[in-house]
Design goal:
By secondary structure, this protein is an all-alpha fold. The chain has 10 helices and no strands. The chain folds into 2 domains: about 100 residues, Cyclin A, domain 1 (Orthogonal Bundle), CATH 1.10.472; about 100 residues, Cyclin-like (Cyclin A, domain 1, Orthogonal Bundle), CATH 1.10.472.
Length: about 220
């Protein structure tokens, strides 16, 4: 897991720059129609790399596009070519730079690509929820926009999935939980001894969601 305060060690970068980077990464991810898991792996790679290395402003885009490239090769059946990714960077880097960045990123992370992304936990809890498609869709929306919010780095993937499901059920008036078996799916106590973590996560997710909705063109 990445360090939640890694930006304190960065000299030139700010949290706002990460938000801009992730917004662009999501746009590229959508352009290539990649799997949701690819986006979460790329996000995790970016944050873990920045937790270990100080990066300049000029190289932050290279880190992002390289992480998405690596995640695509790891997760996708048909991965876009390296030239497709370079074109999305408007020719700011060449093939050799990106391949060198790929090797450096993987070496820094000790070639560890494992990441239990929130979707894995959401699928499990959806089974206990009876596969309510509306609740699952809203939950996925909450989880995906969480890629933009740096304050959510402090929470585990399972907590993000639980909080997203909890919020989705409240928004759709499905109730807090359908049964004690739902939180048991996450090995969390029932009712909520960990409700404060839910509340902390929800306080971050909801206002951030509303700010995005207000900024969307009508």
């Amino acid at each position: 897991m990445p360090a939640a305060d890694y930006m304190d060690k960065q000299v030139e970068l700010k949290w706002q720059m990460r938000t801009v980077l992730m917004d662009w990464i999501i746009e590229v991810h959508a352009k290539f129609r990649l799997l949701p898991e690819t986006l979460f792996i790329a996000t995790n790679l970016i944050d873990r790399f920045l937790s270990h290395r100080v990066v300049s402003v000029e190289k932050i885009q290279l880190v992002g596009i390289t992480a998405l490239f690596v995640a695509s090769k790891y997760e996708e059946v048909m991965c876009p070519s390296i030239m497709h990714f370079l074109n999305m960077a408007d020719g700011g880097y060449d093939v050799n730079e990106m391949l060198k960045a790929e090797r450096y990123l993987l070496q820094t992370l000790d070639f560890d690509m494992s990441y239990p992304n929130p979707l894995h936990f959401l699928r499990r809890i959806s089974k206990a929820d009876g596969y309510d498609i509306q609740t699952r869709t809203v939950s996925k929306y909450f989880i995906e926009i969480g890629c933009l919010e740096s304050r959510l780095l402090a929470f585990t993937p399972s907590m993000l999935a639980a909080s997203a499901m909890y919020l989705a059920r409240l928004c759709l008036e499905r109730g807090e939980w359908v049964s004690p078996s739902l939180p048991a799916t996450f090995n969390y106590p029932f009712p909520p001894r960990f409700i404060m973590d839910w509340i902390d996560t929800s306080i971050i997710i909801l206002p951030f969601t509303f700010s995005l909705l207000r900024s969307e063109p009508r």
